[in-house]
Design goal:
By secondary structure, the protein is mainly α. It is 79% helix and 0% strand. The protein contains eight helices and no strands. The chain is globular, with a radius of gyration of 21 Å. The model is unreliable at 192-197 (pLDDT under 50).
Length: 197
């Protein structure tokens, strides 16, 4: 569910960009972001850095297209979105609060969140998403600025990068849970069974 909420706005944007123009795609993505924020608020959860930042990003680019320059190409719009997502993700690392921390705090037991390796794990997972955003940004920049490169290159890199980040997040989270369980079992062994008389 968490991964779906993270990816839904970008999925909506990417899908609609294949079917319509940039402005409705951006507005739809901003609306989906607002929906995920409303859903989190309704469930008593925090407003996520990624969701709020993405909503502002999509709305700002849509406003730019409608107020300042409606002739920006679709390739440039995709690049602007990628730059914005990279900035949000990398920015959360720079301010020492990786964006994945909010999701983890709401889905993990308090004793795991209190462990010393918790923040390190969030830095690692957020770095994977930041690397994915960087790859998408570079691919879309290449499509925009290098003549002859096919448009599908950007889509292929985006698909591979996002899926890799999702896979890594699931794998690394499971890996950490196994290590936590092993450490917990070592520190708190089950009581020995009483001997029969």
């Amino acid at each position: 569910m968490t991964i779906f909420l993270i990816l839904a706005p970008y999925g909506a944007f990417t899908s609609l960009m294949l079917l319509t123009s940039a402005t409705p795609s951006l507005v739809a993505a901003a609306t989906v972001c607002a929906g995920t924020i409303a859903f989190d608020t309704w469930r008593g959860r925090s407003i996520k850095i990624l969701a709020l930042g993405s909503a502002i990003l999509f709305a700002a680019i849509a406003a730019y297209l409608n107020v300042i320059d409606p002739n920006v190409s679709d390739k440039a719009v995709k690049l602007a979105v990628d730059i914005g997502i990279f900035a949000i993700s990398f920015g959360s690392i720079l301010v020492r609060y990786p964006f994945t921390t909010q999701y983890a705090l709401e889905s993990l037991p308090a004793e795991i969140a209190a462990m010393p390796g918790f923040m390190r794990a969030n830095y690692i997972i957020t770095s994977a998403w930041t690397a994915a955003a960087l790859l998408m940004m570079l691919a879309n920049a290449a499509v925009l600025y290098v003549p002859g490169l096919p448009i599908w290159l950007g889509l292929a890199v985006a698909f591979a990068a996002r899926n890799s980040a999702v896979f890594f997040t699931k794998w690394y989270s499971a890996h950490r849970r196994v290590r936590y369980a092993a450490r917990h079992a070592a520190l708190h062994p089950p009581h020995a069974l009483p001997k029969a008389h």
